[in-house]
């Protein structure tokens, strides 16, 4: 509904890892919604939980999480912050 939507993606290479910072200027989320997403993202085999919550969660973050898990496995981590920022970390092989 807003006309000034902005998404920022920054990629940093650290020692033995790549860090991707994704931020948008959206309105954020309620605390319980953020906790629900954090719980889902902590699940390392989320297929069934994703299917269960698909109607109640952001489809975009679910798709990103599922694909990153399939491609990078245990080397991949994601952490949401305040509902408008995500930090993705990928460890080198």
Put simply, the count of helices is 3
Biggest sheet architecture: 4 strands, antiparallel
Number of strands: 4
Strands in their spatial order, largest beta sheet? 1-2-4-3
Shape verdict: globular
User: How much beta, percentage-wise?
Assistant: 25-35%
Q: Rg from C-alpha positions?
A: 14 Å
Arithmetic mean of pLDDT:
79
Distance between the termini: 42 Å
Which percent range fits the helix content? Answer: 25-40%
Helix-strand pattern: EEHHHEE
Low-confidence stretches: none
Secondary-structure content class: alpha+beta
Can you walk through the features of this model?
This protein has 93 residues and is an alpha+beta fold. Helices cover 35% and strands 31% of the residues. A 4-stranded antiparallel sheet has the order 1-2-4-3. The model has no long low-confidence stretch (mean pLDDT 79).
Provide tags for this entry.
alpha+beta
Quick synopsis:
This protein is of the alpha+beta class and 93 residues long. Helix content is 35%, strand content 31%.
Topology of helices and strands:
Blueprint (H helix, E strand, L loop, with lengths): L6 E8 L2 E8 L6 H12 L4 H7 L5 H14 L3 E6 L3 E7 L2
Antiparallel strand pairs: 1-2, 2-4, 3-4
């Amino acid at each position: 509904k807003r006309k000034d939507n902005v998404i920022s993606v920054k990629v940093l290479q650290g020692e033995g890892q790549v860090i991707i910072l994704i931020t948008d200027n959206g309105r954020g989320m309620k605390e319980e919604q953020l906790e629900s997403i954090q719980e889902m993202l902590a699940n390392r085999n989320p297929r069934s939980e994703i299917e269960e919550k698909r109607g109640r969660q952001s489809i975009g973050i679910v798709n990103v999480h599922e694909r990153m898990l399939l491609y990078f496995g245990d080397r991949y981590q994601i952490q949401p912050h305040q509902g408008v920022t995500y930090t993705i970390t990928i460890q080198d092989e």
